[in-house]
């Protein structure tokens, strides 16, 4: 006798299919993570790490601290308001490393630490946007590390002998593939501040986004001329925690990345030093196993293979075209997302970045 086809209650079949696909995605990510787990010998070094002291940089600070604890024998942590000079004199570290935005750790303290014969290094977080400030800080350190490759020659011209481009990475304690609640679901997601270029760009795609399930969050989105059109889908003027950001990335079908412009009114970059390198958000999206649709930076190809590990757009019109395509080609979208995740785990995590930094200093 012919068997009867199962009758699913309304919505159950779609839910079952979605759950199965999500389980497969998470299982594949777990297999990739195990295969690409980073291991390195512990170095016989003592490092004093000085945090930014800024709450917004906590995921970066913590990612670096966790990586140091994995890579070196002894780690001490301070904040800029601590008596870091006395601490350095007591601990006698092999290296004092400062994560720095705009003089988080005073240069007077850095000079005093160097005066004791202790190596110092700075890792700049906001190049090239605040280069007018950081160019006065860099010469006070023995080693200068920047996330922006275009700033390397600038610091060398200032007399800094040891300068290297070391991008930030993904803090995989926060940004990782995970199962999330349905309330985080979106067709398209963007989390970040509405710098002028971003507000103008989203104005041009607002009518398209209005027809999709969208989540946008960050500061200054009221700048958009078409803000009322999307107001119900924008969490404006609110900071989204790293944990919640990762939940939205995991649940979104498409995560947009749109880099900040070098001529934004909030910048301190009078010389117009270009921004060639990708932002840390590129790696955070990748670490969630999410599908990323990004604008193109000069050095994007050094981080991800466009069309294979990440998707790109060069205009609002192309973003709409690509978004429509990938929303309707799920298998292709998932394949690119998983390749991007594998590339992130292979190259763009903090243990790998910090190891690169330590090798630059100690050989």
TrEMBL record:
Record-linked SUPFAM superfamilies: UDP-Glycosyltransferase/glycogen phosphorylase
Superkingdom to which the source organism belongs: Bacteria
InterPro entries linked to this entry: YkvP/CgeB_Glyco_trans-like
Domain Spore protein YkvP/CgeB glycosyl transferase-like: 201-358
One Pfam match: Glyco_trans_1_2
Name of this chain's protein: Spore maturation protein cgeB
Organism of provenance: Paenibacillus hemerocallicola
Organism taxonomic ancestry: Bacteria, Bacillati, Bacillota, Bacilli, Bacillales
């Amino acid at each position: 006798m012919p068997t009867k086809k199962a009758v699913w209650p309304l919505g159950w079949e779609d839910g079952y299919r979605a759950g199965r696909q999500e389980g497969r995605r998470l299982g594949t990510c777990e297999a990739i993570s195990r295969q690409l787990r980073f291991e390195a010998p512990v170095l016989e070094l003592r490092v004093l790490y000085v945090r930014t002291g800024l709450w917004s940089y906590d995921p970066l600070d913590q990612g670096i601290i966790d990586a140091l604890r994995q890579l070196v024998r002894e780690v001490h942590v301070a904040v800029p308001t601590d008596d870091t000079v006395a601490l350095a004199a007591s601990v006698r570290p092999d290296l004092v490393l400062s994560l720095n935005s705009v003089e988080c750790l005073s240069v007077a303290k850095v000079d005093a630490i160097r005066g004791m014969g202790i190596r110092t290094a700075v890792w700049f977080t906001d190049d090239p946007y605040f280069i007018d400030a950081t160019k006065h800080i860099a010469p006070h350190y023995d080693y200068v590390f920047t996330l922006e490759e275009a700033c390397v020659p600038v610091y060398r011209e200032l007399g800094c002998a040891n300068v290297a481009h070391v991008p930030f990475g993904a803090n995989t304690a926060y940004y990782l593939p995970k199962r999330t609640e349905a309330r985080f679901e979106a067709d398209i997601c963007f989390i970040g501040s509405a710098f002028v270029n971003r507000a103008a760009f989203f104005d041009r795609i607002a009518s398209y986004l209005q027809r999709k399930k969208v989540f946008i969050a960050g500061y200054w989105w009221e700048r958009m001329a078409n803000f009322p059109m999307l107001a119900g889908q924008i969490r404006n003027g609110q900071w989204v925690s790293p944990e919640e950001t990762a939940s939205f990335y995991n649940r979104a079908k498409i995560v947009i990345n749109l880099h900040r412009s070098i001529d934004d009114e909030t910048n301190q970059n009078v010389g117009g030093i270009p921004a060639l390198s990708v932002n840390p958000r590129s790696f955070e999206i990748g670490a969630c196993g999410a599908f990323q649709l990004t604008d193109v930076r000069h050095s994007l190809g050094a981080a991800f293979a466009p069309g294979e590990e990440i998707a790109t757009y060069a205009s609002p019109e192309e973003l709409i075209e690509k978004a429509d395509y990938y929303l309707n080609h799920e298998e292709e979208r998932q394949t690119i997302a998983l390749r991007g995740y594998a590339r992130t785990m292979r190259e763009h995590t903090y243990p790998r970045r910090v190891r690169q930094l330590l090798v630059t200093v100690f050989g």
